[in-house]
TrEMBL record:
Name the record gives this protein: 4Fe-4S ferredoxin, iron-sulfur binding domain protein
Names of the cofactor(s): [4Fe-4S] cluster
Keywords of this entry: 4Fe-4S, Electron transport, Iron, Iron-sulfur, Metal-binding, Transport
InterPro entries (alphabetical): 4Fe4S_Fe-S-bd (IPR017896), 4Fe4S_Fe_S_CS (IPR017900), PSI_iron-sulfur_center (IPR050157), YfhL-like (IPR047927)
Species lineage: Bacteria, Pseudomonadati, Pseudomonadota, Betaproteobacteria, Burkholderiales
PROSITE patterns associated with the record: 4FE4S_FER_1, 4FE4S_FER_2
Coiled-coil annotated spans: none
One GO molecular-function entry: 4 iron, 4 sulfur cluster binding
Annotated Pfam families: Fer4
Length: 85
């Protein structure tokens, strides 16, 4: 499952540089996660790095994007294949 950022986000900026997939960016009001890029950090880390650093615990799983670990792994492989070198 991709993760999502709720409106409890305080725009502290700490999660954005931690994402190995560059899936986090500042939206109109708060930070947002691109569900097409978030792998729950599968392929890079054992745990979601954004969740680890978020001081207000506002990054739950996104129910709009249910994905099992195998699907997240495939997404990681796709992202890696298309990443700029
Ligand atoms: S879980 Fe990992 S890949 Fe997904 S947004 Fe957070 S840091 Fe990025
Ligand atoms: S770490 Fe949490 S509070 Fe800070 S910008 Fe990211 S989602 Fe928002």
């Amino acid at each position: 499952m991709a993760l999502m950022i709720t409106d409890e986000c305080i725009n502290c900026d700490v999660c954005e540089p931690e994402c190995p997939n560059q899936a986090i960016a500042l939206g109109l009001e708060i930070y947002q996660i691109d569900p097409h890029k978030c792998t729950e950090c599968v392929g890079h880390f054992d745990t979601p790095q954004c969740v680890q650093v978020c001081p207000v615990a506002c990054i739950p799983a996104d129910p709009q994007h249910p994905e099992d670990r195998a699907t997240l792994w495939q997404k990681f492989q796709r992202l890696r294949a298309t990443a700029p070198t």
